[in-house]
Specification:
By secondary structure, the protein is α/β, with parallel strands linked by helices. The protein is built from 14 helices and 13 strands. It holds the Pfam family T2SSE.
Length: 356
């Protein structure tokens, strides 16, 4: 196993050398890297056998984690590579074989400015209470955007920040804030228990890695109501879809109450996409909803489908639609029209914005 661990470290080194975001180990394939959104096999590596994938993956798992995997058939974990980098990983079964995926987590937490995100996001880091969400597909930088906002609080406020994650991803270095990072399965049983216990831990700001169930969402909204600033993520595509998803996860008899609570507590929703840039690399396209009076009324009245219209007509308040963001990137020559169209929620509207 020690030799296998060194092989695994060599593969993680390849991720860093090639500026990749992900490493995939799959039986019958060479190790594969994701670079600028596309998959590339490492050509000078041999095709992986069943034993190769198992031994390489297990070389980074503790005996307890290996036992947990045997029971659950998959496992999320985080690992440090020689103090040079951190990876979020998942080992899982498919068609009876093991596969694994490793996502690179930069050691340096980039700022809102360095991520080319709108500067208006800083206003949400100054709020004393409320609920802010970062949404979008998997692999499009939700955790990175949240980390930037949390770290801005860390450097500008004197607060107690609590994170509840599965697994812990970015490691924060406390500055003006006290920061406690709790990992589900190691430091706390589950998201709901971790969030509920923060009421007794004098937390001011709480980041929930992901909201997966009604209990966690309900407790998060209640926390936002009672003087806490809550940040989290959801796997939704747009702000309107996010509001509907939160409400629809509850049984009908609870939806009216959740709708009212969300209307009061929601601060905003950032939807982020990473799109291939014409100059190489990836670039942001975003949608930003700011919960103004009109948005709160639409949520309260169950008219989330009209939120897109408010975003379209509230540019002066700092809101931006995904189509407007995409059109701007095309007009600046940063993204091709073909790529913008692939990510557009309404290609017809995009063509209209571009005068096509």
């Amino acid at each position: 196993m020690p030799n296998r661990q060194q092989e695994m470290y060599d593969l993680l080194e390849e991720v860093l050398k090639k500026d990749a975001t992900d490493l995939h180990l799959v039986v019958g394939r060479r190790p594969v890297l994701r670079i600028n959104g596309s998959l590339y096999p490492i050509e000078d590596r041999p095709v992986l056998s069943e034993d190769d994938v198992k031994e390489l993956s297990f070389s980074l798992l503790s005996p307890d984690q290996q036992e947990k995997f045997q029971v659950q058939k998959d496992i999320d974990f985080a690992c440090n590579y020689l103090n040079k980098a951190r990876f979020r990983a998942n080992v899982y079964r498919q068609m009876g074989f093991l596969s694994s995926e490793f996502r690179f987590i930069p050691s340096k937490i980039r700022t809102i400015e360095e991520l080319s995100l709108p500067s208006i996001l800083s206003q949400f880091t100054r709020a004393t209470q409320g609920f802010f969400l970062v949404v979008g597909p998997s692999g499009h930088g939700k955790s990175t955007a949240l980390a930037a906002m949390i770290d801005e609080i860390n450097h500008t406020r004197f607060d107690h920040i609590m994170t509840i994650e599965d697994p812990v991803e970015y490691l924060f270095q406390p500055d003006k804030c006290i920061i406690d990072q709790r990992e589900v399965g190691i430091d706390v049983l589950d998201f709901h228990r971790g969030l509920r216990s923060m009421f007794r831990q004098d937390a001011d700001v709480v980041m929930i890695g992901e909201m997966r169930d009604p209990e966690t969402i309900s407790t998060a909204i209640t926390a936002a109501e009672t003087g806490h600033l809550i940040f989290s993520t959801l796997h939704t595509n747009t702000a309107a879809q996010t509001v509907d998803r939160i409400i629809d996860i509850f049984p009908p008899h609870q939806q009216s109450q959740i709708r009212s609570q969300l209307a009061v507590t929601l601060l905003g929703v950032l939807s982020r996409r990473l799109i291939p840039c014409e100059q190489g690399g990836m670039i942001n396209a975003i949608e930003l909803l700011i919960a103004n009076t009109a948005v709160r009324n639409l949520i309260r009245e169950g008219k989330a489908h009209q939120i897109d219209m408010v975003i379209d007509t509230s540019l002066e308040e700092g809101m931006i639609s995904l189509n407007r963001s995409l059109a701007d990137l095309v007009l600046r020559g940063l993204v091709s029209f073909e790529n913008a169209e692939l990510y557009s929620p309404s290609p017809a509207e995009l063509r209209l914005l571009l005068g096509q």
